[in-house]
Amino acid sequence: IPTVVDRFNDTLPTNYPMTDAALYYGWYEYGVNGPFLNPSFRFRPGAVAMHLHSFSAEQIRDPNKNWSAALLSRGAACTIGNVYEPYLGVTHYFDILHKRLLAGSTFAEAAWAAMPAVSWQGVVFGDPLYRPYLHLDADGENRPEDNDYRALRLAAMEWGSKPDEMQRQLEKATERTGSGIMAEAIALRFREANSTSEAVMWFRKAKNLYVSDSDKFRQDFSVIGVDRAEGRSGFDGLKLLRV
After folding, report:
1. Residue 136 has what pLDDT?
2. Whole-model pTM above 0.90?
3. CB 79 within 8 A of CB 69
4. Phi (first) and psi of residue 107, to 5 degrees
5. Which residues of the chain have a pLDDT value below 70?
6. Residue 104: which region, alpha, beta or left (left: phi > 0; alpha: psi -120 to 50)?
7. Other C-beta atoms lying within 10 Å of the C-beta of residue 145
8. Domains and CATH numbers, the chain
9. pLDDT of residue 234
10. Which distant-in-sequence residues (6+ apart) come within 8 Å of 147 by Cβ?
C-alpha cells in the first residue's frame, strides 16, 4: 500500500494535497485540521480513518469539530474514537487493529482485539462486519480508477521477496503506462529505503506524469521532505500549503 508518512509535524499541514486516501492514522490534535479542512477533500469509498485523541469522539453531530464526526462526514467508512479521557494506555492500539484488518478480520473483531481494556470511553463507528482488505489478493470488482493500485498490489504479491526484481518491473510498468501513481509509489519505496537521490528523481518524474495541480504539488512537498530529512534548507513549502 503506497503510504505517505509525515515525520516533521504533529499533523499534516493545512491543505496538504491528499488524494485517493483509503487509510488514515493520525495524532495528536484536539480538532480536525490539515488536508481535511479542504472543502473538496473526500476519502475513497470504504476508507478506514482514525485520529488518536482523548476527545476525538466527544461529539458526533458537528463535522467540523473533534475527529470522529469529521472523518465520517468526509467519507470514511469506519473510525474509532474516545468520548472522554481514557489515558493513552487504554486507547485502541492502531498497530494491532491494522494488522488484524490486513489479516482479514472484520472491523469489529479488529477493534475488539486492539482495545486493551473495556471501558465506556472508547467507541467504534462503522459496519461491524466490514472487511476492508477482503480483496487484498487483488481479486474482486475491477474498476478503471483502481488499475494502478491493483497493479502495485499484484507486483508486491509476485515479487515482494525480490525487491530488486520488483523495482525493475515497476519501473518498466511506469514507463509503459505513464502512470504518476506508480512513479510516486516507486519514489516512496526509495524514500523508505533511505535512497534519497533516487527518491527525488522519481518524485520529479511523478510530477511530470501527473495532470492535476494537487498531485504535482504533493511531489514538490515530498522533495522538500527529503531535503529536510537530509538537513538541507530550501523554500518553505508549508507557506504554500496554507495559501
Report:
1. 80
2. no
3. no
4. -60, -40
5. 233-243
6. left
7. 8
8. 23-125 (no CATH), 144-241 (1.25.40)
9. 57
10. none
Distance CA 10, CA 26 (A): 8
At residue 143, the pLDDT reads: 84
- Residue 103 · residue 114 · CB < 8 Å: no
CA-nearest of 212, 187, 211, 210 to 200 is 187
What 3 state SS string does 71-86 have?
HHHCCCCEEEEECCCC
Percentage of residues in the chain having pLDDT higher than 70: 95
What does the DSSP assignment read for the chain? Answer: -------SSSSPPTT----S--EEEE---SS--GGGGSTT--PPTT-EEEE--TTTTS-SS-TTSTTHHHHHHTT-SBEEEESS---GGGS--HHHHHHHHHTT--HHHHHHHT-SS--SSEEEES-TT--TTTTTTS-S---GGGHHHHHHHHHHHHHTT-HHHHHHHHHHHHHHH--HHHHHHHHHHHHHTT-HHHHHHHHHHHHHH--SHHHHHHHHHHHHHHHHHTT-----HHHHHT-
Per-residue cell: 243: 495559501
CA distance 171 to 183: 8
Q: Which pLDDT score, from 0 to 100, does residue 235 have?
A: 54
Could you tell me which residues come within 8 angstroms of residue 125 by beta carbon, excluding any fewer than 6 positions away? 57, 60, 68, 72, 78, 79, 80, 81
Side-chain half-sphere of 80: how many Cα atoms within 13 Å? Answer: 28
